[in-house]
Every structure is written in structure tokens, then in C-alpha cells.
Write a sequence for this structure.
């Protein structure tokens, strides 16, 4: 049995959300991604936060999904603001700031890959399962 292929959909979509307004100056982009890994460094996260009026970012993380904590912050990767975390109870919690360490947010809820669950990556997100 082979492991599932890596998924890059939400990460690539986030890059497109940044790219479009740079080349279409009148574009306003709303990005909502599910299970987004960390895409860029601190400067990238700060850039997204500073341009929130042009590119609105929401990244939804499900329960103990390990994908949003990868790559690790120790490698220099950071999430921009805009996290919404789905708790085990099914409640959706807004997490202010970048990589919020609250137990109600993905960084605090899943401190490392050994305490996470990759199967949570597929959902459910409000009853919807993702994946192939």
C-alpha cells in the first residue's frame, strides 16, 4: 500500500491569492483555505497581514490535523493571521494573530506531529469531507 500523495491545493491557492493583486491592481481577493500548511516566512505572513484590505485570508484548521503545523516554525515558516480552528466539539473558534499558541488554536492544540492526526486533514469541515 502506498502513502497518499502530498496535497498542495490550499498552499498553491494562497500563493495565487497573493499573486493576483500584484498583477491586477484593482483585484480584491478573498481566500478561504482548509488545512493550509505554512507557506512562507515571517516577512510573507507580515505582508499578508499588512495587505488584508486587498487580500482577505481565512485558513480553517480541523481538530488535530498535522498539515497546518508543517513546515515547522523552527524552520522559519509562519502562518498569517486569519485562523479559524474547528475544535473536537465541532465549535469553530477564531484565533487572532499569527500562529496563536492558545489551546483553542492549531499551534496550541497540536504541538507536534506525534500528537496530531493526519486523517483530520480531510474533515469534516461543517459536515463536508475533503480528499480523493
Amino acid at each position: 500500500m502506498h502513502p497518499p500523495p502530498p496535497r498542495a491545493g490550499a498552499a498553491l491557492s494562497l500563493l495565487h491569492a497573493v499573486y493576483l493583486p500584484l498583477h491586477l491592481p484593482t483585484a480584491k481577493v478573498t481566500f478561504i483555505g482548509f488545512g493550509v500548511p505554512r507557506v512562507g516566512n515571517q516577512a510573507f505572513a507580515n505582508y499578508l497581514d499588512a495587505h488584508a484590505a486587498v487580500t482577505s485570508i481565512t485558513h480553517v484548521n480541523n481538530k488535530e490535523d498535522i498539515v497546518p503545523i508543517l513546515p515547522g516554525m523552527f524552520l522559519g515558516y509562519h502562518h498569517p493571521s486569519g485562523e479559524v480552528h474547528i475544535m473536537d466539539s465541532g465549535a469553530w473558534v477564531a484565533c487572532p494573530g499569527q500562529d496563536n499558541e492558545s489551546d483553542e488554536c492549531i499551534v496550541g492544540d497540536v504541538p507536534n506531529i506525534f500528537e496530531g492526526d493526519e486523517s483530520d486533514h480531510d474533515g469534516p469541515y461543517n459536515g463536508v469531507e475533503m480528499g480523493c
User: Anything to note?
Assistant: The CA atoms of residues 44 and 103 lie 25 Å apart.
